[in-house]
Amino acid sequence: MIDFGIDKLALIGAVALIVIGPERLPKVARTVGVLLGKAQRYVSQVQSEVNRSIELEELKKMKAGLETAASDVESAVYQNLDEVRHAGDGFHEGDRPGDDSIASSSHYTPSYSHLYAPPRKNWRLKKAAVPMWYKQHNGVRRHVQSGAARVARFRPPGAGPR
């Protein structure tokens, strides 16, 4: 960037004092400071956008590399699976136990859905951040009640409905 030393800044200040005058110099200095701040913010925004775009391109390249590696591994696994199937070992297709279900399908994917079920959420049970003992101690309402239910709750036992 531009290199300003103390001597250059003093020279610029003296010229500005002579040209602008002492009455308008503080207002002009404030305006210049505001404009320089806006310019610095704009430059930093542009730099952050450029850095984000560079990082995005690097991530895209990394993703493409991982996808190609995964496809290479998948093809190698299927190739080895086909070699094992066709190796023979004295067996013919259909002679091995369980050969008809697994070996006949080229893309066997086991299902593990029966092993794990996500926990069911009880939507009636609400978890609060404030403990119940604190609410009871400070008299905080713990249940939502309508106005009519609240009146009926606190009505004296001898009084009937209105």
List keywords for this structure.
5 helices, 162 residues, mainly alpha, translocation, protein transmembrane transporter activity, protein transport
Apparent shape = flat
What series of H and E elements makes up the topology? HHHHH
Ranges with pLDDT <50 over ≥5 residues? 99-103
Contiguous helical run count? 5
- Level of helix content? 55-70%
Structural class: mainly alpha
What summary fits the major beta sheet?
A: none
Q: What is the strand content?
A: under 5%
| Radius of gyration based on Cα positions | 39 Å
Mean pLDDT: 80
Tally the beta strands: 0
N-to-C CA distance: 84 Å
Keywords: Cell inner membrane, Cell membrane, Membrane, Protein transport, Translocation, Transmembrane, Transmembrane helix, Transport
Organism: Aquabacterium soli
InterPro entries: TatA/B/E, TatB
GO molecular function: protein transmembrane transporter activity
In short:
The protein has 162 residues and is an all-alpha fold. Helix content is 60%, strand content 0%. The longest helix has 63 residues, at 25-87.
Structural summary, described in words:
- The chain is mainly alpha-helical and 162 residues long.
- It has a domain at 6-104.
- It has helices spanning 6-20, 25-87, 99-102, 132-138, 147-154.
- The longest helix is centred in the middle third of the chain and has 63 residues, at 25-87.
- It is flat and about 85 Å long.
- 0% of the residues are buried.
- Its main location: membrane.
- Belongs to the TatB family.
- This is Sec-independent protein translocase protein TatB.
- It comes from Aquabacterium soli.
- It holds the Pfam family TatA_B_E.
